[in-house]
C-alpha cells in the first residue's frame, strides 16, 4: 500500500484531476493523487503513471468487489462493509489493534464503527485502500472523515480533510463547532485558522447558535477566546502606536535633512547669506523643505524669540537642538547654533541627556541610515 504514503501537501486533489497527459487512459483507469515523478523527457512519468493508475484501480476494485474479504465492519443503522484485515491493519494502527482483539467465526472478524454515517465509513475505508475519494463525497462527509482520520490515526486523510475545510468550508455559523472539533481531533492548523476567523468576526460569531452551545458546554473555551480577543486588540493598538511613532521620527528626520539643505544650499527664498538666488530654481526634492522654510522665516522675525516663547519658535529651537545632536561635524556645519548647542549639552542633566539620546537613536533607527549624507550613527557618540 505505497499509495497512502507521501501524499504531497500541494497535490491534495482528487483522483480525476490528476489524470496523466500522455497517453489517454481507458475510462476505469484513474490516476492516483500521488505526486508525479518523472525524467525530463516524460518517459519515466508515463511508465510510473500507468503503473500507479493501474495499482489505484486495482485497490479500488478490490474494495468495491470485496474479493476474499475477511472483515465485516458494522456501521450505524445496521449497515455493514466488507474489507480485508491486512489492508485495514496496514493503514491504521488503531484498526490493527481492534482486529487483534476482534472476535469472529473462523478467520472472519467483525468490528464496529459507530457515531458517523455508514457512507462516511465507506468513504473512509475506500481511502484506506486506494487513497482516493470523490469530491462530492469529501464535501459531504469531511467532518466525519476528519473524526475518523483522527480516531483511527490516518494522518494523510486528516491532512486532506483540513485542506478541504480551509477551502471555503468555514463560515460564521459553523466555525465555532469546527474549532472545537479541530481541538478534539488535534488539528493545530485548522484550530489556528478557526481561531483567527473567530477573533476577526467575534461580534457576528458570538451571536451564533454554535457560540451559545459552546458557552454552555465549554465555558473555559469561551473565556479563553474572549481573552485572546483582548490580547489581540492590545497588540493591534501597540502596532498602531508604533507605526505612529515611526511616522513622527521619520518626519523629524526629514525636517533635519531639509534644515541642513536650507542652511547649506539655500532653497527658494531662504538660505545662507553668501548665496545668490536665481529666479528659475530647480524644484526642491526635500518634502519637509516648504514647511521648514515658513518656520525659519517666522523664527527670524518673531518678537517672542526666546525658549519657552511662541510654539513655532519653540519648535524651531527643538529642531536646532536636535540637529546639533545628530550633527557629527559642527566645525563645518552651517546650521545656526549647532556648535552652541553642542557646548550646552555638556551642562545638561542626565535625565535630559537620556531623553535626547533615545530620541536621536529612534530617529536614526527609523530611517536606517548607515551611510546617510547628513547624519550617521556617529552622531550618537558626540
Ligand atoms: Zn528645498
Ligand atoms: Zn515665534
Ligand atoms: Zn550641525
Automatic annotation (TrEMBL):
<keyword id="KW-0479">Metal-binding</keyword>
<dbReference type="GO" id="GO:0042542">
    <property type="term" value="P:response to hydrogen peroxide"/>
</dbReference>
<keyword id="KW-0862">Zinc</keyword>
<dbReference type="InterPro" id="IPR035898">
    <property type="entry name" value="TAZ_dom_sf"/>
</dbReference>
<feature type="domain" description="TAZ-type">
    <location>
        <begin position="243"/>
        <end position="341"/>
    </location>
</feature>
<keyword id="KW-0833">Ubl conjugation pathway</keyword>
<feature type="compositionally biased region" description="Polar residues">
    <location>
        <begin position="8"/>
        <end position="18"/>
    </location>
</feature>
<dbReference type="InterPro" id="IPR044513">
    <property type="entry name" value="BT1/2/3/4/5"/>
</dbReference>
<dbReference type="GO" id="GO:0006355">
    <property type="term" value="P:regulation of DNA-templated transcription"/>
</dbReference>
<keyword id="KW-0863">Zinc-finger</keyword>
<dbReference type="GO" id="GO:0008270">
    <property type="term" value="F:zinc ion binding"/>
</dbReference>
<feature type="region of interest" description="Disordered">
    <location>
        <begin position="1"/>
        <end position="47"/>
    </location>
</feature>
<feature type="domain" description="BTB">
    <location>
        <begin position="69"/>
        <end position="137"/>
    </location>
</feature>
<dbReference type="GO" id="GO:0009751">
    <property type="term" value="P:response to salicylic acid"/>
</dbReference>
<protein>
    <recommendedName>
        <fullName>BTB/POZ and TAZ domain-containing protein 4</fullName>
    </recommendedName>
</protein>
<comment type="pathway">
    <text>Protein modification; protein ubiquitination.</text>
</comment>
<dbReference type="GO" id="GO:0005516">
    <property type="term" value="F:calmodulin binding"/>
</dbReference>
<dbReference type="InterPro" id="IPR011333">
    <property type="entry name" value="SKP1/BTB/POZ_sf"/>
</dbReference>
<dbReference type="InterPro" id="IPR000210">
    <property type="entry name" value="BTB/POZ_dom"/>
</dbReference>
<dbReference type="InterPro" id="IPR000197">
    <property type="entry name" value="Znf_TAZ"/>
</dbReference>
<dbReference type="Pfam" id="PF00651">
    <property type="entry name" value="BTB"/>
</dbReference>
<dbReference type="GO" id="GO:0009725">
    <property type="term" value="P:response to hormone"/>
</dbReference>
<dbReference type="Pfam" id="PF02135">
    <property type="entry name" value="zf-TAZ"/>
</dbReference>
Amino acid at each position: 500500500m505505497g499509495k497512502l504514503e507521501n501524499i504531497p501537501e500541494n497535490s491534495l486533489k482528487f483522483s480525476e484531476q490528476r489524470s496523466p497527459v500522455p497517453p489517454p487512459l481507458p475510462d476505469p483507469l484513474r490516476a492516483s493523487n500521488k505526486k508525479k515523478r518523472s525524467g525530463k523527457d516524460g518517459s519515466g512519468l508515463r511508465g510510473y503513471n500507468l503503473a500507479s493508475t493501474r495499482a489505484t484501480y486495482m485497490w479500488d476494485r478490490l474494495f468495491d468487489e470485496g474479493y476474499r474479504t475477511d472483515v465485516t465492519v458494522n456501521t450505524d443503522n445496521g449497515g455493514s462493509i466488507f474489507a480485508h484485515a491486512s489492508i485495514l491493519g496496514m493503514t491504521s494502527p488503531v484498526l490493527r489493534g481492534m482486529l487483534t482483539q476482534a472476535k469472529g467465526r473462523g478467520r472472519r472478524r467483525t468490528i464496529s464503527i459507530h457515531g458517523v454515517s455508514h457512507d462516511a465509513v465507506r468513504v473512509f475505508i475506500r481511502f484506506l485502500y486506494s487513497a482516493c475519494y470523490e469530491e462530492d463525497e469529501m464535501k459531504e462527509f469531511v467532518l466525519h472523515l476528519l473524526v475518523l482520520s483522527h480516531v483511527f490515526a490516518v494522518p494523510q486523510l486528516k491532512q486532506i480533510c483540513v485542506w478541504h475545510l480551509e477551502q471555503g468550508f468555514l463560515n460564521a455559523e459553523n466555525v465555532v463547532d469546527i474549532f472545537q472539533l479541530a481541538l478534539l481531533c488535534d488539528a493545530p492548523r485548522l484550530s489556528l485558522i478557526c481561531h483567527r476567523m473567530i477573533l476577526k468576526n467575534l461580534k457576528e460569531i458570538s451571536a451564533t447558535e454554535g457560540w451559545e452551545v459552546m458557552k454552555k458546554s465549554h465555558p473555559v473555551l469561551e473565556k479563553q477566546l474572549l481573552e485572546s480577543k483582548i490580547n489581540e486588540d492590545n497588540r493591534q493598538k501597540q502596532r498602531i502606536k508604533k507605526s505612529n511613532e515611526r511616522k513622527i521620527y521619520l518626519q523629524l528626520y526629514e525636517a533635519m535633512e531639509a534644515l541642513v539643505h536650507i542652511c547649506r544650499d539655500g532653497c527658494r527664498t531662504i538660505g545662507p547669506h553668501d548665496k545668490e538666488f536665481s529666479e528659475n530654481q530647480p524644484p526642491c526634492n526635500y518634502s519637509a523643505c516648504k514647511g521648514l522654510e515658513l518656520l525659519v522665516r517666522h523664527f527670524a522675525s518673531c518678537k517672542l524669540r526666546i525658549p519657552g516663547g511662541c510654539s513655532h519658535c519653540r519648535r524651531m529651537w527643538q529642531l536646532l537642538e536636535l540637529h546639533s545632536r545628530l550633527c557629527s561635524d559642527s566645525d563645518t556645519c552651517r546650521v545656526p547654533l549647532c556648535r552652541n548647542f553642542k557646548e550646552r549639552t555638556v551642562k545638561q542633566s542626565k535625565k535630559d541627556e537620556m531623553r535626547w539620546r533615545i530620541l536621536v537613536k529612534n530617529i536614526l533607527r527609523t530611517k536606517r541610515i548607515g551611510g546617510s549624507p547628513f547624519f550617521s550613527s556617529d552622531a550618537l557618540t558626540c
